[in-house]
């Protein structure tokens, strides 16, 4: 049976309020004048990943717990405006939200509202099973309660990817995601020894590919036991914000991987998409398209024919 969906995204739907600050850490003061202002918009990790895969032509379906509130309306509108299928499970606690403090250099500090979930939260098993059975691949965000869906996904036989973000290699919360996925992304920012953590993931779990992103230093790819350094791509415009860069990297990598591309080429695609994301202001959501992605890898300007 032909799959109806290329990528099922679980979790990570929410709303961010963007606050530009003079520097990070924020200097202690009674007040600061903020420019270009304070903006609230839909878009958290799962949203950004879904936007990325959809913009690259993959049929994408997003599943998460979403509240009947203003933030939920923003999330539903984001998906509707970008043509991304969304299954919203009612969340009495409300839609996930966060405040992102963004410095002049594009770095950010995220403050997540921990009241927007409960220990009893669950994604309905039959909903997960049905959507996964109709999908080629599932990307699982580490937001609660997506870990509970991992066994169901494994039963369906769908391949799984996840992003552990700034895992320190020790926090037990991340381990179910790290060990259940076939393809694991994480940031090297909090890892004292990225290679050791990457190899531990492959030794203990199912993954045969692990990617650790390292910002301007590029990324490290562990595929079939071989570690490769992938240089960072040149941003196509000035860097203004790093928000969503890791999600863009993962989305472009999965795009290449589902297309049968070698892992090293997938990582190059990810590097280009991540660099593009760093040029998009945090107040907006915009993902790289297939033409610009190809151009970033080949070094040609978009619209230039092969051999020109």
TrEMBL record:
InterPro entries: Carboh/pur_kinase_PfkB_CS, PfkB_dom, Ribokinase-like. The keyword Protein biosynthesis does not apply. Residues 182-284 form the Carbohydrate kinase PfkB domain. Gene3D superfamilies: 3.40.1190.20. Keywords: Kinase, Transferase. GO terms for molecular function: kinase activity. PANTHER family: PFKB DOMAIN PROTEIN, SUGAR KINASE. This is Sugar/nucleoside kinase (Ribokinase family). It comes from Streptomyces capillispiralis.
């Amino acid at each position: 049976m032909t799959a109806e969906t290329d990528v099922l995204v679980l979790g990570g739907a929410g709303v961010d309020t963007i606050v530009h600050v003079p520097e990070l850490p924020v200097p202690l003061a009674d007040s600061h004048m903020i420019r270009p202002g304070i903006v609230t918009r839909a878009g958290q990790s799962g949203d950004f990943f879904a936007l990325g895969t959809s913009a690259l032509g993959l049929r994408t379906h997003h599943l998460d717990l979403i509240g009947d509130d203003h933030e939920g309306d923003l999330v539903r509108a984001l998906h509707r405006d970008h043509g991304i299928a969304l299954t919203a499970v009612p969340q009495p606690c409300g839609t996930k939200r966060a405040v992102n403090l963004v410095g002049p250099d594009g770095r950010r500090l995220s403050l997540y509202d921990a009241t927007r979930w409960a220990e009893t939260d669950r994604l309905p098993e039959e909903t997960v099973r049905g959507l996964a059975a109709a999908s080629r691949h599932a990307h699982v965000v580490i937001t609660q309660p997506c870990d509970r869906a991992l066994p169901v996904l494994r039963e369906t036989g769908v391949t799984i990817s996840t992003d552990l973000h700034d895992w320190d290699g020790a926090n037990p919360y991340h381990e179910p995601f790290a060990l259940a996925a076939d393809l694991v992304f994480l940031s090297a920012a909090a890892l004292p020894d990225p290679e050791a953590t990457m190899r531990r993931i492959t030794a203990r779990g199912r993954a045969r590919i692990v990617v650790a992103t390292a910002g301007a230093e590029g990324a490290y790819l562990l595929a079939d036991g071989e570690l490769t350094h992938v240089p960072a791509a040149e941003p196509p415009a000035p860097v203004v914000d790093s928000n969503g860069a890791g999600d863009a990297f993962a989305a472009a990598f999965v795009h290449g991987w589902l297309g049968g591309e070698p892992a090293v080429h997938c990582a190059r695609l990810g590097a280009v998409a991540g660099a593009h994301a760093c040029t998009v202001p945090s107040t907006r959501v915009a993902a790289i398209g297939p033409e610009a992605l190809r151009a970033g890898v080949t070094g040609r300007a978009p619209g230039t024919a092969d051999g020109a």
